[in-house]
Write a structure and sequence with these properties.
The protein is 73% helix and 0% strand. The protein starts with 11 loop residues before the first helix and ends with a helix. It has a single domain, classed as Amino acid/polyamine transporter I (Up-down Bundle). By secondary structure, it is mainly α. It is built from 19 helices and no strands. The relative contact order is 0.23.
Length: 411
């Protein structure tokens, strides 16, 4: 067991937080800041609490039970709920992978004059090979260095001469969206932050991080280990939201202030970094998109692999070799192939990031309800089933997340 060394390396919660600011997140937060300035900043602290509550529940389900979400759903909620849950997450993940790959290709093309389809296919092949042949934990350590390029947005915030009074009002003044577009933006913010793929990924990675023993020999975590997990998860999600807020503020006082309210191309999105990087803005943007994409796409594909492999009762896990979990890796490969097919069919690289966030926002509510049911079931978590605070937060997240797509569809 490795549980006593939980912080020997960055935990799954911090990896999840980094993956949460994937190209889809960067694109969505940039678009929202450009279109609506600071008026939707109030959603950031709200969605931070929601995301932390959901990811903590997913982590606790995995740690306590020793199995992933798909296995828990099959055992305790039945095959019909399982099929619906797995189909929802597989569809959302595959489109998200397609959007991320397309955006990475478009970003690289800012620096290298090659056709975007060629770059997208090369990225997919490279990521697939790395996921198959290199330990994800070793691979992710390197990519976190590239992910540090996101810190550029934290610096830009202090260089754009932001109106800090307007920023403060944006965080505390709740504003009901007055248009379908603003409601779509709010739905996208929720979807890209509270993303379904992270639920399955978090539960399964907690198991791999904590315990490599067979399921029958699984030992429940101690209270100290659960506390360490909560710090890891909450820290990861709140760090993701801090960066997200910085992106929205940066684009509000660069793009939005100068009349750019729709981001259609990678070079438009890169302009938010010009106050810091000047002529190097495109390079910094490219490093951020590519670094986070290389970190997030394996998480997306891996989450699909975990969900489907567990659903059909096949060996799974990024710590296993291909010969030990052939079905798991073939599912990952299949998801990547379908995503590349979507890209070659003509997805708009930057706009698709926003649309993938909306799709995540639509698919998240039923999966959150499923997790709420599992977390309240003593047969799943025993005496560590969902307490009143966790249960209330999770239920409020489910209700709020369900209200957004319903309002959007009925507008």
């Amino acid at each position: 067991m490795r549980g006593h060394g939980y912080f020997k390396r960055l935990g799954p919660g911090l990896v999840t937080g980094a993956a949460d600011d994937d190209p889809s997140g960067i694109g969505t937060y940039s678009q929202v800041g450009a279109a609506y300035g600071t008026s939707l900043l109030w959603s950031m602290p709200v969605v931070a609490v929601m995301a932390a509550a959901v990811q903590e529940t997913a982590a606790r389900l995995g740690l306590q039970s020793g199995v992933g979400l798909s296995t828990l759903i099959r055992r305790h909620l039945g095959r019909r709920v399982l099929v619906v849950s797995v189909v929802l997450v597989a569809i959302a993940n595959t489109f998200n992978i397609a959007a991320d790959l397309a955006a990475m290709g478009a970003a690289i093309r800012l620096e290298i004059a090659l056709p975007e389809p060629v770059l997208t296919v090369a990225l997919a092949l490279g990521i697939g090979a790395l996921e198959l042949f290199v330990s994800y934990h070793r691979y992710s350590r390197v990519l976190r260095v590239l992910a540090l390029s996101l810190l550029a947005y934290l610096v830009v915030v202090f260089l754009v001469h932001a109106d800090w009074g307007a920023v403060a009002r944006g965080f505390v003044r709740f504003q009901i969206p007055h248009s379908r577009g603003a409601l779509a933006a709010l739905l996208a913010v929720f979807g890209t932050t509270v993303s379904p793929y992270l639920f399955f990924w978090q539960a399964s990675e907690e198991i791999e991080e904590f315990d490599e023993a067979p399921e029958d020999d699984h030992v429940a975590p101690s209270d100290d280990q659960l506390s360490a997990m909560r710090i890891d998860v909450v820290g990861g999600m709140f760090s993701a939201v801090v960066v997200a807020s910085a992106i929205m503020i940066s684009t509000a006082f660069t793009l939005h202030l100068h009349g750019v309210t729709t981001i259609a191309t990678a070079d438009q999105a890169a302009r938010a970094l010009e106050p810091l990087a000047g002529s190097l803005a495109q390079l910094i943007f490219t490093l951020g998109i590519v670094g986070l994409g290389l970190l997030a796409v394996p998480v997306l594909a891996g989450a699909t692999g975990y969900a489907v492999a567990e659903a059909i009762d096949r060996p799974e896990g990024l710590s296993r070799h291909f010969r030990e979990a052939r079905g798991f890796y073939l599912i990952i490969a299949g998801s990547m192939v379908v995503a590349v097919g979507l890209d070659l069919a003509g997805l708009n690289p930057i706009r698709s990031l926003f649309y993938s966030a909306i799709l995540n926002g639509i698919t998240a509510p039923p999966l959150i309800i499923v997790m709420w049911l599992l977390a309240r079931n003593p047969a799943v978590l025993g005496n560590r089933s969902c307490g009143w605070l966790s249960s209330t937060l999770l239920l409020a997240t489910a209700i709020g997340s369900a209200a957004l797509p319903i309002a959007y569809l009925l507008w």
